[in-house]
Design a protein that fits this description.
- By secondary structure, the chain is of the alpha/beta class.
- The protein has 6 helices and 10 strands.
- The longest helix has 14 residues.
- The protein starts with a helix and ends with a strand.
- The structure holds guanosine-5'-monophosphate.
- The site of guanosine-5'-monophosphate has 19 residues, from strand 2, strand 7 and helix 5.
């Protein structure tokens, strides 16, 4: 998606450890015009999947998923929670996920009420690195007996394994920008 690639080149900062910082439009301040275009693009790419629910993970996925849902006819958005809360009933599906950016494990959980065997779920997230978050969300969907309709990612990092793992597994994966790093340390984009 050209608009997203342009924004990454203009505002993204590549940090040590292959971390791309995009706080100015995706992870801290949010560019709503860009989000709307991202939502429309996901709706086009997954148009034939009969999506009736979107699943993401807090925090950054929530804004992307919420705007995207409007282009799927206002389907509900569920976000997996990373911390235990009194608000959450004890009846949850949960799975452990390794965080690439924090380098530690956390438990992601969703209340059993919000995903069931009638759901065709589109998983949305901001980044795809090693695929831990996306595969964790796929496990939660499967625990609920629902179907994973696809995985929609804003920024995939080509130099980490997540993209290959998910594509090999036969899941429909669309990443709107696939970032690679050239030898001189600058950013380039791949198309898949
Ligand atoms: P994965 O689970 O695929 O290894 O990593 C994806 C998760 O880690 C995303 O939910 C995202 O929050 C975070 N992440 C991974 N790489 C980056 C990065 O380069 N920049 C930012 N901002 N977040 C990242």
């Amino acid at each position: 998606m050209e608009l997203l690639e342009k924004k990454i080149l203009e505002c993204g900062e590549l940090r040590d450890g292959g971390i791309l910082k995009v706080d100015s439009f995706l992870n801290h301040q949010i560019d709503i015009e860009l989000m709307i275009e991202i939502g429309k693009e996901f709706a086009k790419l997954f148009a034939d999947k009969k999506v009736n629910k979107i699943l993401t993970i807090e925090a950054s996925g929530i804004a992307i998923a919420s705007i995207t849902a409007q282009f799927f006819g206002n389907v509900p958005v569920v976000f997996a929670k990373k911390t235990e809360s009194l608000n959450l009933s004890g009846d949850v599906y949960s799975t452990d996920i390794h965080s690439y950016t924090k380098n530690k494990d956390y438990t992601a959980r969703i209340d059993k009420k919000y995903i069931n065997e009638n759901d065709r779920v589109l998983i949305i997230d901001d980044f795809l690195a090693n695929g831990e978050a996306a595969m964790g969300l796929m496990r939660l969907v499967k625990m609920a007996g629902a179907e994973v309709s696809g995985v929609g990612i804003c920024i995939e990092k080509a130099f980490q394994r997540g993209g290959n793992l998910i594509r090999e597994n036969g899941t429909s994966l669309h990443s709107l920008a696939i970032v690679d790093v050239k030898e001189d340390g600058s950013i380039s984009f791949l198309r898949k």
